[in-house]
């Protein structure tokens, strides 16, 4: 790996890019640009379709001259939909594409709130539960949700779990809309999440597992891996635990996926999909919905960010402890109002 490629992998950017081909202007002030390496070398695959990127010049004289999203990636180039027309710049200008984590975070907050206010059945349902505090509803009998062939598996999973953990797992399975699981540090919340996921998996339910940090997501996945529960991990490889890498989208996409059908099979083959709360901008969520969404460390996530994953599941489970660390809010007025 060249020094340039190594730097790009560590920093999370792609440099030495020039415009290639014609720019296409779309409605709403969107401009589609094609970039290729200036000297024809291959592009290191560290970007993902759906990533938000900030475009700067190679020498950092002009930073943030455009921003937008990656729409296509090949070995030799990257296609982005941007908010500025870069073809007006000098034809020999060299660009650098870097991930936009700051502005992307703000747009995620506002985007999630906007979705919550949409005039749609899903948004109305969430508003009733979250804003209007509609009480959660539960199914009366386990027999209606627990398949006969899964009973022995579920019984084995419950062995060794204490009474509160068993009660929490039962509530998750019986829920019609949401379940809240509260526990102090060391009470076995992560074990409860793992066991709940194993039970839901055994019953044939699809699960979206999420949290705010990559480490929190991977801590649960490491437990699932020990029990040979299959899953797909979304996110950048450099931010994922090394033992989880074989389950990542990036690793699986290198195994002979050449058609849209093969890519769709990759996204749909596992019942369990895991990502951070910020990762729900991934294109998979435009096509797939889940039976359950489990959010770990929910009390440490700001409400607008925590909303994001909930749009993509029929039921959700929030796990955390509101007596521990609250979400980090830097604005003094916003922090005071949230108390």
From TrEMBL:
The keyword Membrane does not apply. Residues 7-101 form the DNA2 rift barrel domain. InterPro entries: Dna2/JHS1_DEXXQ-box, DNA2/NAM7-like, DNA2/NAM7_AAA_11, DNA2_Rift, P-loop_NTPase. Its cofactor is [4Fe-4S] cluster. One of its GO terms (cellular component) is nucleus. Coiled coil: none annotated. One of its GO terms (molecular function) is 5'-flap endonuclease activity. Signal peptide: none annotated. One of its GO terms (biological process) is DNA replication, Okazaki fragment processing. SUPFAM superfamilies: P-loop containing nucleoside triphosphate hydrolases. It is found in: Nucleus; Mitochondrion. Keywords: 4Fe-4S, ATP-binding, DNA damage, DNA repair, DNA replication, DNA-binding, Helicase, Hydrolase, Iron, Iron-sulfur, Metal-binding, Mitochondrion, Multifunctional enzyme, Nuclease, Nucleotide-binding, Nucleus. Its EC number is 3.1.-.-, 3.6.4.12. Residues 162-253, 264-330 form the DNA2/NAM7 helicase helicase domain. It catalyses: ATP + H2O = ADP + phosphate + H(+). Pfam families: AAA_11, Dna2_Rift. Key enzyme involved in DNA replication and DNA repair. Involved in Okazaki fragments processing by cleaving long flaps that escape FEN1: flaps that are longer than 27 nucleotides are coated by replication protein A complex (RPA), leading to recruit DNA2 which cleaves the flap until it is too short to bind RPA and becomes a substrate for FEN1. Also involved in 5'-end resection of DNA during double-strand break (DSB) repair by mediating the cleavage of 5'-ssDNA. Belongs to the DNA2/NAM7 helicase family. This is DNA replication ATP-dependent helicase/nuclease. The gene is LOC108261390.
